Amino acid sequence: MSPRVATPRPRAMIMAAGLGTRLLPLTELIAKPMVPILNRPVMEHILRLLRRHGISEVAANLHHHPQAIQEYFGDGSRYGLHLHYNVEPELLGTAGGVGACRDALGEGTFVVVSGDALTDVDLASLVAAHKRSGGIATIAVKQVEDPSLYGVVVHDRDGRVTGFQEKPAREEARSVLCNCGIYAFEPRIFDYIPAGVFVDFALHVFPALLSAGDPFHIWRLDSYWNDVGNIDQYRIGNFDALLGRVRVQVPGESVSRNVWVGPGSTVSPNARIKPPVLIGGGCRVEDDAELIGPLIIGDDCVIEAGAVLSGVIHWDGGKTGRGASAVGGIIGRGVRIHHGATIGDGAVIGDGTDVAAGAVVPLGARIRPHTQVAAEDGLS
After folding, report:
1. How far apart are the first and last CA of the chain?
2. Which of 21, 25, 110, 251 is the most buried (most CB within 10 A)?
3. Which residues touch 317 (CB under 8 Å, ≥6 apart)?
4. Is 140 helix (H, G, I), strand (E, B) or coil?
5. Are residues 114 and 221 in contact, defined by beta-carbon separation less than 8 angstroms?
6. Main-chain phi, psi angles of 104, to 5 degrees
7. Whole-angstrom distance, CA of residue 177 vs CA of residue 206
8. 253-373 belongs to which CATH class?
9. Identical fold at 11-242 and 253-373?
């Protein structure tokens, strides 16, 4: 009997080079894969997902603020992974970035995941379906209500891809299945990715496969997926994770039903908390502060007496002063909101901004990082 040859486990690629312009001002000073979901970078949740599926060799392409990603994740050993990086001085596109990591992806089947995907996709099932189909590629797709927001995939009755539409008008859409940016590939895909130039999967590679008659297929993703593509989706993704709609780890200790508190934090017994609420580590929540969920507070934050936060995502290192209030917005890292200030519903405040006492930030405002918001500067 001949010895059994072990099938190599798939390797993975995380596409992490994008600029994240639709998340501005949040991504002006950080890379999109570093935006926090439940106080952890979205890319960290992807790495944990890969490890759960037995994938230990992972490559990532970087461009926007690459050093922060490299410093945070290191060599990946903290997650039980070997993490390889390729920094792109100029963006190479979705496919070009994958092609530049060819050596790290080995000689077998590999998966590719967008670095901004919040998902608990069953990668093992994706790979199994890919192998059954026998094609060069398999695209994870999900049914969406509004195809005009996405690139959609057209297929035949056997699931073989026959075409694409990029953000079609609803009445012109030939499909309601969006491309999730999650793929399984055979190494032959590199034959369609010329080296050193900008190459995009949707614009170049997939049309080339169709022209060549090289079969590739869809795989319907039934689990949670959110591309964290804009401010609204980022908010929804965070709160879906907080509510348990996607399988990701909630940091901190569960101190009561749907209330988590990180290590080293102190929460006054006189604070009023309406769950679900996540409070990071090293925080201080003072008397009569009111926290109305869904609400996420990052590490090392101070919420002073009488402050009210409702439906807010509050990044690390910030301070909300006495009697200040914020509703339904996103507050960046290190933001100082002084006493009596009001942050209007849906406002997004960039890192390091200082909001003066009594200032009023209007509904839906977008404040760039390190802005000085005075009470009389025209924002009120």
Report:
1. 81
2. 110
3. 298, 299, 300, 301, 333, 334
4. strand
5. no
6. -75, -15
7. 16
8. mainly beta
9. no
CA triplet 273, 274, 276: central angle to 5 degrees?
110
Q: Which amino acid is at 29?
A: L
Q: Which pLDDT score, from 0 to 100, does residue 1 have?
A: 45
Closest CA to 74 of 52, 107, 43, 100: 43
What's the rounded Cα separation, in Å, for the pair 72 and 195?
A: 29
- HSE-up of 332 (CA within 13 Å, CB side)? 25
Domain boundaries, the chain: 11-242, 253-373
Task: Give the pLDDT score at 7.
Answer: 54
Paired with 219 in beta bridges are: 140
Q: Is 227 helix (H, G, I), strand (E, B) or coil?
A: coil
Q: How far apart are CA 243 and CA 275, in angstroms?
A: 10
Residue found by looking up tokens 């072990």 in the block: 6
CA distance 198 to 190: 14
57-62 and 82-87 as β-strands: parallel, antiparallel, unpaired? parallel
Q: Rounded to an integer, what distance in angstroms lies between the CA atom of residue 337 and that of residue 101?
A: 43
pTM (predicted TM-score): 0.92
Residue in this structure with the two tokens 């002084």, named with its chain if needed = 338
Counts for the chain of helices (H) and strands (E), in that order: 6, 34
pLDDT of amino acid 8: 62
List helix spans (H) across 221-308: 231-242
CATH number of this structure's domain 11-242: 3.90.550.10
Other beta carbons within 10 Å of 270: 11
Question: CB-based burial of residue 113 (10 Å sphere; 0-12 exposed, 13-18 middle, 19+ buried)?
Answer: buried
Which segments in the chain show pLDDT lower than 50? 1-6, 378-380
